[in-house]
Amino acid sequence: MSWFLGGIAFLILGYFLYGRIVEKILSPDDRATPCVDHPDGVDIVALPQWKNMLIQLLNIAGVGPVIGVILGIKFGKIALLIIPLGCIFMGAVHDFAGGMMSLREDGANLPKIVRKYLGRAFASAFSWAMVLLLLLVVAVFINVPANLIDKTVFPEISFFWWAVGIIFAYYIAATLFPVDKIIGRIYPVFGALLIVGSIAISVALAVAAFKNPSILADCEGFATFQEKNPLFPCLFVTIACGIISGFHATQSPIVARTMTSEKQARTTFFGMMVLEGVIAMIWAAAALAMYNIAPENLSFNGPQVLGNISKHFLGAWMGGVAIFAIVVLAVTSGDTALRSVRLSIAEMFGICQVSIFKRIVTTLPLVAIVSCLLWWSNQDAKSFNNLWNYFAWGNQILSVTTLMASSVWLLKRGKGLKALVTLLPGIFMCMVVVSFIFWAWPTKGQVWGLVPGGLPLGHAILAAAAVTALVVVCVVRRGLSLKEEEK
C-alpha cells in the first residue's frame, strides 16, 4: 500500500515542484495564441481552460494507462515506483515541451516542428512514419473498445463488428466537424465518466488493501514473465502512456489551437500527464491485487483482466461504469488521432481545412487505409498482436523525436544546460527504443523488432548506446548552429 500511496503523493508533489521548474525553463508568456490571433472556426477555436484540460486528458489517456499497466505490473511492484518517476521527469516534460513548441509555432503539428528543428532530411521520412503510426493508433483504438463492448457488455451475442462500425462512424464525424461542435461538447460527459470510474476503483481497491495488504505484494506468477521480458527496455515500451508516450505530441497541437493563453500550458500539458499517471497507478495497483487474488488472470489478455478487476471490486453495475470509462479512454484518443492525421496531411500538402469539401477529400483516403488495417488486424490474433507491437515501439520513436526537437528548440533560444530538462529523458528513451527494436522478443512466430532473429540484449544495448551518442551529437550541433544563425 505504501508503494501505491507514495507514488500518488510523488506525482502530486512533482506537479507543483518540478512542474514549476520546467515552466520557468519553457517560459510561457502573454503573447497571442493561435485562436486569439487568427481563429478559423474549425480547428482554431477559443475554448475555456477547463474544457481544454479535459480534451487534453482524454486525447492522451488512451488504453495505455489501463491495458498497458495491467500487463506492465507483471514486472513487479517496482512499476509503482517507475510510473511516477517516469511520468514527472519524462512524460510530463515531453508533453509540456511539445505543447509549448506547437503554441510558439502557430499551432503547428509535429511534422512541421520536426522539419524546422531537426531538418528536412529527417522530417521527410518521419512525417510519413508518424502518419502511419497514427493510422495504427486509430485501428487499435477502434479494435480495443469494440472488443471490450463485445466481451463485457454484450457477451451473449456477436456485437464486435457493429461496435466497430459505430465507433468508426463517430471518429469520422469528430474528424470532420469543427472542434467545438462535437469534441468540445461531448468530452465533458466522457470526462465525468472517466473520473467517476477511476475514483470508484481506487476507493474499492483501498478498502480491499486495507483489509488484506498482501494483495499488493509481488505475485509469484510474475517470475515466468520477468524471465522472458527484461525490465529494460520492455517496461518502458509496455507502460507507454503511464510513463511517456510520443503519441501525446501528436495530440497537443489540437489543444494548442484552442488555448487562449500560454499561461495555461503547465496545467493543460504537464498537469494532465500527471493526472494520467495517477490513473495508471490506480489500474496498476488494481491489476496487482487481481493477480494475487485470482492468479489464473496471469494467463488472460488485458481486456479480460480489466473486466475481472471491475466486476470483482465494483460488482456488475458499477463495474460496467468502470469498463465504459475505459472504452471512453480509447474512443477519445482514437477520434483525435484521426483528426490529427487530417491536420498533419493538410499541413504537409498545404490544403486549407476551412472548407468542408476539402476536409472530406483529405479524410477519405485515411478512412480507406484504416478500414484495410481493421480488416487485416482481425484476421487472427497474431495479426492484431503484430499491429499492437509495431505501434508500441513506433510510439516511443515519436517520444524520442519530440524530446530531441525540444532540446534543439531550447538550445536555439540560448537555454544552454537548461536544455538537459528534455535532452536527458530523450537520451534515456533513445536507449530504450533502439535497444528494443534491435533485440529479439523471445517468442517464436512474433514480429517485434527490425533485425531478423534479433540481437542478444547486451549487444542491442551497446548498439543503442552508439546510436544514442550519434543522435546527441547531431542534436547539440543543430541547436547551436540554429542559435548562431539567429545572431
Tell me about this structure:
This protein is an all-alpha fold and 487 residues long. Helix 5 packs across helix 15, helix 7 crosses helix 18 and helix 18 packs parallel to helix 20. The longest helix has 48 residues. About 1% of the residues have low confidence.
Q: What is the compact description of this entry?
A:
By secondary structure, the protein is mostly helical. It contains 20 helices and no strands. The chain has one domain: Amino acid/polyamine transporter I, CATH 1.20.1740.
Can you identify the CATH superfamily? Amino acid/polyamine transporter I
Helix/strand structural class: mainly alpha
Q: Pick out the low-confidence regions.
A: 442-448
Biggest sheet architecture: none
Shape: globular
Number of domains: 1
**Text of the CATH class:** Mainly Alpha
Number of helices: 20
- Separation, N- and C-terminal Cα atoms: 55 Å
Mean pLDDT: 87
Percent helix: over 70%
Query: What portion of the residues fall into strands of 2 or more residues?
Result: under 5%
Report Rg: 21 Å
**Quick one: how many beta strands?**
0
Write the CATH fold name: Amino acid/polyamine transporter I
Order of helical and strand elements:
HHHHHHHHHHHHHHHHHHHH
By CATH, the architecture is named: Up-down Bundle
What's the topology here?
Blueprint: H1 2-16, H2 18-26, H3 34-37, H4 49-60, H5 64-72, H6 79-104, H7 110-118, H8 120-153, H9 160-176, H10 183-211, H11 222-228, H12 231-238, H13 240-243, H14 247-256, H15 265-293, H16 302-349, H17 356-377, H18 381-412, H19 420-438, H20 457-486
Helix pairs in contact: 1-6, 1-15, 2-6, 4-10, 4-14, 4-15, 4-16, 5-15, 5-16, 6-14, 6-15, 6-18, 6-19, 7-8, 7-18, 8-9, 8-16, 8-17, 8-18, 9-16, 10-15, 10-16, 12-19, 16-17, 18-19, 18-20, 19-20
